[in-house]
């Protein structure tokens, strides 16, 4: 019966289309309408459509004729459409339309103020792979007939005024990689049939009015990486089946009406980086199994009704955790002492006890990692330990507090007791309580300090330490103990590698199908090749030219230092050699390529490196890497997008080409044996230059423009469309013409961290961590 409906629909729907001088008359009978609705709800069936230059021209002119303002306030696009699309004489008239082999392959009419509806006749555009109508004033519904656009890969119709339901029949578009329909007025349930979109990696439906439950069938979307459903009207439980989304990296369910418990089965999301389930009606305990999620860095479960105690979560990689405004009870887990948490908000719960002693030990949570801790409105007690003031960035006396950490989150002085630590990095809401050597009131010996409901513990307790690459670092150390003498490769006059001698050493250069070394990149004085190190580790081998003996000695000493720098956001240096005027550096291989190329490849597509997409995670990685280098007294010296490398997911950024020629006067064979103060050799000028470079890279991430940044040609990023206000402010501060007004690397990292905890895709940051107020305070301090 359904098959008969299907064939009848195809005949009845397309029989009324007559190409005629650039117009299409679409006649749809009541029977066709009923059949179309039946198809929309029945699931996936193959649809057929006509195609060809005349049909495609008619479909586009059909859209033009339906526009109420074809020019748009800023547009010269559809107004100029005339003649035959994809024909040589008329090609220039079809702005916003791309062709290949005589067919329309892409349409981009983004942010032109167009007012009209989406034409069902665009189902005739059979070769279109990209369709971008975002940020217009389009109304009406999403055409179910578009299901026949089987080659469509990228669909963006966000920030319009569309209504109606998501067509279930779109499951026919099996090539779809990205769907962005956020910020419309779409209603109805999420279609279970979309589970058939097996290639889908990006789905953003936030800020609509979708209702119903989360589809169980979506658990089969094995390639989905980014799913944002926040600010809808969804209800029901969190499906256990979603734990099968092995590729999911970003999940946002904030501000719906979801109920039930957090599923233990979601620990199967082995690629998850960030998850927001805040502002729902969830109850029950925090799942202990979530500690096994190897990449989960940010988790926000605030504003729910969660109960029970905080789980041990030993080994969890969490860096930001917000569980405020719940009903959690019990003690603070001592096991959290070794977690890499940098932002922790447990305010407004029912927690009891004191700060665990393990949290205060050297190398643990409060002594070295956390720089924002909010435990207010609980039932905690005890005194403020002086160890919290022990980080190396702090001033030497109380009078330096305000100047040493203007961006650090705060500790409210009201109600605190005991002696103020001399060596600290804490700022306060009431600076009068932290001037000179003024102590807090004495602590009653028998009771200690009670943290009153008005007290906010937000402690800036040190810069972020290196997140050791445990597996690879351990392997490297083991390899170093047993490695054989390195045999450097020879280069011919043409620069081609001779592999004979290298094949006897511990580096083997990989060959392509033509028998030539695999060249990854080339600079003015260097080439980077793909190779194997010690037989089984695939690496990048950078070969540089040098005939200067003194330069070779400096290279040797600098390389020894860099090979002992292990940090998540630095490209690791594994080995080095100097032979016959050639220097070789064996480095970590980053499969995602460099940031500049990635930003350029975004052109014309729904951007993946924009701030609200992967860009903020990239910026965070750069900021962390820069913070780590500066904390060791090493200037980057080459802060540009081409020196930022990405992993295969495009979300983890690492700094490359750091430290070379920038480690001034510090030549030690083992960084671990060196005192931290001896490494503080990066001058204020070079550090400030790094911050300016970060600002330029940040601008490229936000705007998508990789051309040379200059004061004359740069445009101000659009707020909030391209980035939140605090990131705009950060960009302006970093690129200040006066170096002393630029923030420190620590301040940069803090702003990016706090902004990241805002809801993904939101037009304005909505975090209880108050990054706006922190930034305002910082701006005032920096003048």
Automatic annotation (TrEMBL):
<dbReference type="InterPro" id="IPR001611">
    <property type="entry name" value="Leu-rich_rpt"/>
</dbReference>
<dbReference type="InterPro" id="IPR050647">
    <property type="entry name" value="Plant_LRR-RLKs"/>
</dbReference>
<dbReference type="Pfam" id="PF00560">
    <property type="entry name" value="LRR_1"/>
</dbReference>
<protein>
    <recommendedName>
        <fullName>Protein kinase domain-containing protein</fullName>
    </recommendedName>
</protein>
<dbReference type="GO" id="GO:0005930">
    <property type="term" value="C:axoneme"/>
</dbReference>
<dbReference type="InterPro" id="IPR003591">
    <property type="entry name" value="Leu-rich_rpt_typical-subtyp"/>
</dbReference>
<keyword id="KW-0732">Signal</keyword>
<dbReference type="InterPro" id="IPR001245">
    <property type="entry name" value="Ser-Thr/Tyr_kinase_cat_dom"/>
</dbReference>
<dbReference type="GO" id="GO:0004672">
    <property type="term" value="F:protein kinase activity"/>
</dbReference>
<keyword id="KW-0812">Transmembrane</keyword>
<keyword id="KW-0067">ATP-binding</keyword>
<dbReference type="InterPro" id="IPR017441">
    <property type="entry name" value="Protein_kinase_ATP_BS"/>
</dbReference>
<dbReference type="InterPro" id="IPR011009">
    <property type="entry name" value="Kinase-like_dom_sf"/>
</dbReference>
<feature type="domain" description="Protein kinase">
    <location>
        <begin position="514"/>
        <end position="757"/>
    </location>
</feature>
<keyword id="KW-0677">Repeat</keyword>
<keyword id="KW-1133">Transmembrane helix</keyword>
<dbReference type="GO" id="GO:0005524">
    <property type="term" value="F:ATP binding"/>
</dbReference>
<dbReference type="InterPro" id="IPR000719">
    <property type="entry name" value="Prot_kinase_dom"/>
</dbReference>
<feature type="transmembrane region" description="Helical">
    <location>
        <begin position="455"/>
        <end position="478"/>
    </location>
</feature>
<dbReference type="InterPro" id="IPR032675">
    <property type="entry name" value="LRR_dom_sf"/>
</dbReference>
<keyword id="KW-0547">Nucleotide-binding</keyword>
<keyword id="KW-0433">Leucine-rich repeat</keyword>
<keyword id="KW-0472">Membrane</keyword>
<feature type="binding site">
    <location>
        <position position="542"/>
    </location>
    <ligand>
        <name>ATP</name>
    </ligand>
</feature>
<dbReference type="Pfam" id="PF13855">
    <property type="entry name" value="LRR_8"/>
</dbReference>
<dbReference type="Pfam" id="PF07714">
    <property type="entry name" value="PK_Tyr_Ser-Thr"/>
</dbReference>
<dbReference type="GO" id="GO:0016020">
    <property type="term" value="C:membrane"/>
</dbReference>
């Amino acid at each position: 019966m359904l098959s008969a409906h299907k064939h009848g629909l195809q005949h009845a729907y397309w029989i009324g289309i007559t190409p005629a001088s650039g117009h299409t008359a679409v006649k749809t009978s009541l029977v066709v309408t009923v059949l179309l609705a039946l198809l929309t709800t029945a699931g996936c069936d193959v649809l057929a459509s006509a195609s060809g230059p005349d049909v495609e021209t008619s479909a586009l002119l059909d859209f033009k004729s339906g526009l109420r303002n074809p020019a748009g306030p800023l547009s010269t696009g559809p107004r100029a459409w005339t003649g035959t699309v994809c024909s040589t004489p008329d090609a220039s008239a079809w702005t916003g339309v791309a062709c290949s082999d005589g067919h329309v392959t892409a349409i981009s009419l983004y942010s032109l103020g167009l007012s009209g509806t989406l034409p069902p006749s665009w189902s005739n555009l059979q070769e279109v792979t990209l369709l971008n109508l975002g940020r217009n004033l389009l109304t009406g519904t999403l055409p179910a007939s578009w299901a026949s656009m089987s080659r469509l890969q990228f669909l963006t119709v966000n920030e319009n005024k569309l209504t109606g339901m998501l067509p279930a029949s779109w499951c026919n578009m099996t090539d779809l990689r990205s769907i962005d329909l956020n910020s419309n007025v779409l209603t109805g349930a999420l279609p279970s049939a979309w589970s058939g979109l097996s290639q889908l990696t990006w789905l953003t439906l936030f800020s609509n009015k979708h209702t119903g439950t989360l589809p169980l069938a979506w658990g089969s979307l094995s390639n989905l990486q980014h799913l944002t459903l926040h600010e809808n009207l969804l209800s029901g439980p969190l499906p256990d089946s979603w734990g099968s989304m092995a590729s999911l990296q970003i999940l946002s369910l904030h501000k719906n009406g979801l109920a039930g418990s957090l599923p233990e089965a979601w620990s199967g999301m082995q690629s998850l980086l960030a998850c927001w389930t805040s502002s729902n009606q969830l109850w029950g305990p925090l799942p202990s199994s979530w500690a096994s999620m190897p990449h989960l860095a940010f988790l926000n479960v605030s504003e729910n009704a969660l109960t029970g105690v905080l789980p041990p979560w030993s080994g969890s990689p969490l860096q930001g955790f917000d569980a405020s405004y719940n009903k959690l009870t019990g003690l603070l887990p001592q096991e959290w002492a070794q977690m890499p948490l940098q932002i922790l908000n447990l305010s407004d719960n029912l927690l009891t006890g004191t700060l665990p002693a393990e949290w205060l030990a050297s190398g643990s949570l409060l002594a070295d990692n956390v720089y924002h801790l909010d435990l207010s409105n609980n039932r905690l007690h005890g005194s403020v330990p002086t160890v919290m003031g022990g980080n190396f960035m702090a001033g030497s006396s109380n009078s330096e507090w305000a100047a040493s950490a203007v961006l650090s989150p705060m500790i409210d002085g009201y109600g605190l007791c005991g002696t103020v630590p001399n060596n600290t990095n804490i700022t306060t809401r009431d600076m009068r309580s932290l001037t000179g050597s003024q102590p807090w009131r004495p602590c009653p010996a028998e009771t200690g300090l009670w943290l009153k409901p008005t007290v906010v513990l937000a402690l800036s307790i040190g810069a972020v330490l290196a997140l050791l690459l445990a597996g690879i670092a351990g392997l490297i150390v083991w390899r170093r103990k047993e490695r054989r003498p390195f045999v450097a490769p020879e280069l011919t006059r043409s620069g081609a590698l001779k592999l004979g001698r290298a094949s006897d050493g511990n580096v083997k250069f990989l060959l392509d199908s033509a028998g030539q070394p695999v060249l990854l990149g080339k600079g003015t004085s260097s080439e980077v090749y793909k190779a194997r190190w010690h037989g089984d580790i695939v690496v990048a081998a950078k070969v540089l030219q040098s005939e200067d003996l003194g330069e070779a000695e400096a290279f040797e000493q600098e390389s020894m230092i860099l090979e002992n720098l292990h940090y998540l956001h630095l490209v690791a240096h594994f080995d080095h050699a100097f032979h016959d005027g050639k220097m070789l550096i064996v480095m970590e291989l980053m499969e995602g390529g460099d940031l500049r190329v990635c930003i350029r490849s975004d052109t014309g597509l729904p951007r993946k490196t924009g701030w609200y997409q992967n860009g903020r995670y990239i910026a965070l990685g750069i900021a962390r890497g820069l913070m780590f280098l500066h904390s060791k007294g090493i200037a980057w010296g080459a802060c540009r997008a081409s020196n930022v490398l990405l992993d295969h997911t495009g979300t983890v950024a690492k700094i490359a080409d750091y430290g070379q020629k920038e480690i001034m006067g510090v030549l030690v064979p083992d960084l671990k044996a060196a005192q931290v103060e001896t490494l503080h050799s990066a001058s204020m000028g070079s550090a400030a230059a790094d911050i300016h470079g970060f600002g330029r890279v940040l601008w490229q991430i936000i705007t998508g423009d990789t051309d040379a940044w200059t004061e004359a040609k740069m445009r101000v990023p659009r707020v909030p469309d391209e980035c939140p206000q605090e990131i705009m402010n950060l960009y302006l501060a970093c690129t200040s013409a006066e170096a002393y007004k630029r923030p420190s690397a620590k301040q940069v990292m803090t702003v990016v961290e706090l902004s990241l905890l805002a809801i993904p895709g939101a037009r304005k940051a909505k975090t209880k961590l108050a990054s706006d107020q922190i930034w305002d305070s910082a701006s005032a301090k920096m003048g």
